[in-house]
Amino acid sequence: MRDRHLSRRSFLRNLAIAAPASSLIVAAPSLAQDLPPLATDDPQAAALMYVEDASASTAPNFKPGSNCANCALIQGNDGDAYRPCAIFPGKSVASAGWCSAWAAKP
Question: Is residue 41 part of a domain?
Answer without folding.
Answer: yes
